Amino acid sequence: MCGIVGFIGNNDAKKIVLNGLTRLEYRGYDSAGMSLFNNRYQIFDVYKDEGRVAKLVESTKNSSYSNIGIGHTRWATHGKVNKENSHPHYSQSRRFIIVHNGVIENYQQLKDQYLSHSTFISETDTEVIAQLIETFSQTLNVENAIITTLKLLHGSYALLVLDSMDPEKIYAAKYKSPLIVGKGPEGITIASDLMALVGYSDDYHALDDKSFVIATRDDVRVFNLNHELLPLHLKKIEIDNADTEKGEFAHYMLKEIHEQPAVLRRIASNYFDKDKSLIDPQIIQSIKDSDRVYILAAGTSMHAGLIGKQLFEKMASIPVEIHIASEFAYQKPLLSKKPFFILVTQSGETADLRACLVGITEQNYKTLTITNVPTSTLAREATYFLQLFAGPEIAVASTKAYVAQVAVLAILAYELSSKNVNIKYELGIAAAAIDTFLDSQKLIDIVREKLTHRNCFYIGRGLDYFVGLEASLKLKEISYIQTEGFAAGELKHGTIALIEEGTPVIALISDPHISGNTRSNLKEVQARGANTLKIVTEAVQQKNDEIVLPNVHPLLTPLIMVVPTQLIAYYAALERSYDIDKPRNLAKSVTVE
Ligand code: AGP
């Protein structure tokens, strides 16, 4: 989940690389670095340190003008967060400078086998790559030295390589970690995410695995590892600059929470032509031909998948199993005879999920990726894919993507059902319901009054329990309050031992059939001193309920119920002056297992 940007062309490489790194910083932000060609001394200068891109902007402010440069923001995998382990890394003679996203699993064996005489500065796997290229360049030309190195690597990589002896080229290579080439009027940009190309490239080509690239100022050639030239499939970049800015919002997270009604409306209009759904009939038929659907995902996307299971089973009577990607990839659960797999992912690059896709594809099962990034690995490698149309989600804490995932799963379930629910209309109702709630100042007072402890519980039943899991993740990942989402009926079977005087317990109640049960569970914790809060829908509203939300279709209550919990997390982090868009230890796209 590092960010990588390189530029070569007739423009200011520093400006373009720094702009790209700023846009990609949400992918990983432990350290940042870049390399620019110093025309005066005819070498590549390297600037790097732990900390944010802003620090790199400061440290490069006196650098000389350069038409070529590469940059990197790091989420640490191998080695501490410090200057030595920051990228770019270079080979011993400093001839080769590289930035890398991914994990080289056999780096120690390669070090022992080929580099026993080399001197290393860092603890990283990346430095091994630079040293290997230098070692092979003593007997091979640069292109073959790089290709020979790539063939030895096990694991994943998105690489940019500079050769001090030829400052008119950027070499690049891709395997499992994303890398995209952009062509623009002033040069070639290569980055780990489309966002870095916006404004400098008109067209892009998403590299396939085992691609090797040679970019010059006005051209780019892509090869396979047999050095055979491959065609470029250039597509228009469809991200608008405005999508990448915060606008009048203080944080991307708040902007993206506020965008949720518009996202639902966009999904409804993109997936329906009047009342006819536009989902590929082959997807529908493939699911109908299966005897069980498996939803695989991680984190927030897994929480959306839990709602998806309810939608499929209750709307279309299709049995669904949901699995955490990192577990499914290696536990190999027993499968039904005719399984169909749905992979739910905002980024389309989650390594845990890709590990699942590789295994499933090897067994020739059909797969559908539901993602926000049509150029992503998981979109391109699945049998089918459906877009979230949520627009770029920059904040590390996922909000609008969750709501979009639930909506797209609802449309899919609708299309598989007897269609006695007008889902397009119901999504419009949900969008309007969210609109009525977004500017609730009351939540700020509630956060100040109730979230005063180190821990917190969300409790609910049915769909509200699954929303509670998502609410708990949101709160803990940006406010660092130890939060647990719990089935309301389960708390008394042990965990209630953690309830002390003032422990915050937030109940989510929307289902009239079981609201009484949850209210009883709330009384059990109140009796032990809990500081409780009730978030309810009008259908179950009672006196003294603190937060009352408009009703939406019973199967779509997660779309409205999740919103106050997202705002609670936001205000709790704001109260604590934490970095809301880039929480500690996290990254937006987890591209390592
Ligand atoms: C959610 O707020 C987190 N950022 C994280 O759990 C995320 O949902 C998870 O890493 C899955 O990412 P994906 O949707 O891009 O696959």
Overall description:
It is a single chain. The protein has 593 residues and is of the alpha/beta class. The protein has three domains: 240 residues, Glutamine Phosphoribosylpyrophosphate, subunit 1, domain 1 (4-Layer Sandwich); 195 residues, Rossmann fold (3-Layer(aba) Sandwich); 152 residues, Glucose-6-phosphate isomerase like protein, domain 1 (Rossmann fold), CATH 3.40.50. Helix content is 35%, strand content 24%. The chain is built from 18 helices and 27 strands. Strands 3-2-4-1-10-9-11-15 form an eight-stranded antiparallel β-sheet, with helices on one face. Strands 5-6-7-8-12-13-14 form a seven-stranded antiparallel β-sheet, covered by helices on one side. Strands 19-18-20-21-22 form a five-stranded parallel β-sheet, sandwiched between helices. The model has no long low-confidence stretch (mean pLDDT 94). It binds 2-deoxy-2-amino glucitol-6-phosphate. 2-deoxy-2-amino glucitol-6-phosphate binds next to helix 9 and helix 16.
Cofactors and ligands: 2-deoxy-2-amino glucitol-6-phosphate
Q: Compute the number of strand runs.
A: 27
CATH superfamily of the largest domain, by name, is Aminohydrolase, N-terminal nucleophile (Ntn) domain
Class from secondary-structure proportions: alpha/beta
Indicate the low-confidence ranges by residue numbers.
none
The number of distinct structural domains comes to 3
Gyration radius from CA atoms, angstroms:
25 Å
